[in-house]
Design brief:
Blueprint lengths: L80 E3 L2 E3 L46 E3 L1 H4 L12 E4 L10 E5 L10 H9 L3 E4 L8 H5 L5 H14 L15 H15 L9 E2 L2 E2 L4 E6 L1 H12 L4 E5 L5 E5 L2 E5 L14 E6 L4 H11 L9 E2 L12 E4 L37 H9 L2
Parallel strand pairs: 5-6, 5-9, 9-10, 10-13, 13-15, 14-15
Antiparallel strand pairs: 1-2, 3-4, 4-6, 7-8, 11-12
Length: 435
Amino acid sequence: MPLPTDRAVPTDRAVPTTRSPLAALPCLLLLACGGDVETAEPGAGADASGDAPVVGSIDGIVNDSDPTDGNTPDGPGEDTTVVNDDVTRPPDVVGLDGASPGSANPGSANPGSAPPCTQGHSQPVMDIDYAPERRSILFGDVDAGETWIQADVPSEVYPAAPARQRDELFLLLPGSGAPPSLATWLMRSASFVGYHVIGLSYANNSSISQTCRMTSDEQACHGDILQERIYGDDASAEVEVNEANSVVARTALLLAHLDGLYPDENWGQFLQDGAPIWSKVALSGASQGGKTATYLSRDLEVGRAVLLNAMGSAFRGSGDTPVIVGPWSTLPRATPAERTYGIWHAGEAANEYAPVLLAYHGVDVLGGTVDVEDTALPFDCTHMLRTTGTPAENNPDAIAGCDAHKSVGADACLALDAQGLPQLSAAHIYMMTAR
């Protein structure tokens, strides 16, 4: 399967030739590897970007950060200063055309000024009874000859609602150790508004934050693992992901498989020469999945990026530098800011780092943080959404451990209204459909 050739690949450090024994360590207890839980009062020196592994648990879908993990930043140049919503960026960060991030750069991720809000925004209201056909597909059933990572975790597939087909793919990447099946509301909503939908099973079986905090270069480690998981490049000594198990290859393989199984649904429209057509993909991810989606949408121009909880790698600083943005998150992005959306909860650590990361991506130019409970559609046309809802409120399927971080996308932790519809339904659909 051909890999994209127009993506940025770091060349400023040697690719490791040996792999760490950490990569082979299993999670011995259900929650033993899940120390990456965000809190509103994180400690100094932590990776705050979101990344928690929980095998078979709800935590993994949207719970990926540890207030105590990681090292304090080392090395020159990472001197990001955050004062409220004002960001002083490292001096060596430039935009796609050489301009500094946030400066005028038409057509790039940093347009310079917000376009007028012309949306007399109209979007469908989710039908609580909408129940598209759900298909759970194991990669072993697609290709029995490959050794698959997360072999027992199926991808979840939904066809587009016939009345609203938009000829676009909604590709969801779950958080550490989590199956896509923990976020069915999000996927059903995407199907409802006309997307073909795939919740992808991929190599999310370990936590990036937990793994990288035990390495000598924690910040570089994040980007190296993401590069290997997304493309199958031999970029990290901490994980072992071949090309077949990469996000790019698994997406292409599943699309081809679906096109053969359901020719009338035209899944093949998202492939060209065996590779995904990323411009037709709305790429979404929760927690570590959000970090993965951010990295991929940095390298390749996707149709839309819908990011839950995590929008890059950020680390706890101290003093005048409370938040330090990881190196890979500061690089210019192929996906424009106007097609990038983020949402997080006010009660999680993302409340501190999400606005900073989104500012690096140029999204702050399009509007500031808006609390969805206090603002009617179209949420002032912003791309930075925040919720203050009570986790799992009115949710009959609520489980122990639901918190602010998990309440943004995990079925069992979503707050529901009196009719049983997620209170964030309008916000989710807005990020999927707003123009």
